Amino acid sequence: MLVSCPFKDPASIERATSSNDVSKKRYVEMLELDNVEHTYLSFVDCQSRAFQELRAAMKSVKNKVLKTKRSYSEDFKYFGVELSNV
Questions:
Q1: CA distance 73 to 85
Q2: What is the rounded distance in angstroms from the CA atom of residue 25 to the CA atom of residue 30?
Q3: d(CA 38, CA 46)
Q4: Helix (H, G, I), strand (E, B) or coil at 8
């Protein structure tokens, strides 16, 4: 009785190939997920830095507005004193 060799059986070759294809597909999917995760993390990092820069700019503008407010307050007090003397 002859036993067929699984290496020469087209069905077993097809199964082996499809098994390898599945492994390759999984590997590619994992690489794509790593790439997506890396892209996402890069995006989040970029947005975080943008928010930090925005926060610093807003703080700077706030300080300038407060400084201008104090300056105008002093100017109006001075003009009030000057007007009351007239």
A1: 19
A2: 8
A3: 12
A4: coil
Read off the pLDDT of residues 26-66 as tens digits, 9 standing for 90 and up: 888 888 888 888 888 889 999 999 999 999 999 999 999 99
Q: How far, in Å, CA of 4 to CA of 10, rounded?
A: 11
- Dihedral class, residue 54 (left if φ above 0, else alpha if ψ from -120 to 50, else beta): alpha
Residue for token pair 């989040």: 44
What gap in Å lies between CA 22 and CA 30, rounded to an integer? 12
Residue 12 contacts residue 6 (beta carbons within 8 Å)? yes
Band of residue 20 on the pLDDT scale cut at 50, 70, 90: confident
CA dihedral 43, 46, 50, 53 (to 10 degrees): 160
Kind and range of the H or E element at 50?
helix 10-85
Euclidean distance between CA atoms 60 and 50, whole angstroms: 15
